[in-house]
Amino acid sequence: MTAKTDRYTEAVGRRKTATARVRILPSKSSSMTVNGREANEYFPLATMVKTAYAPIQTLGVAFNVSVKIHGGGHKAQAEAVRMGLARAISELEPERRKDLKVRGFLKRDPRAKERKKFGLKAARRAPQWSKR
User: Cβ(34)–Cβ(69) under 8 Å?
Assistant: First the structure.
């Protein structure tokens, strides 16, 4: 069997219900495909593309990035990609881990939607009270 010389590094990023599986390959210029489409085409807003590219931009490195993502909304997906990308970079280049950690790219954001409780209209919203 022949061994692949350009083997990718893979990591998973999560935010709310979005899960991103990120694969990176060192390259001369950065490019990102998300679910088979270009990142600029996949994400509806430029700020979301900027969020997804944040680890690459701050470190000034270049990678070919391939992402498979499902669940959540566009913003949560962009943040999941950011986390997965940061994890993959820190796995490939451990000396850059501190820079990523200081910027908060490696921290999982635990906030998620609170479940609805019985007897209430939403998670905490009680039915309207009427005196008569």
Answer: yes
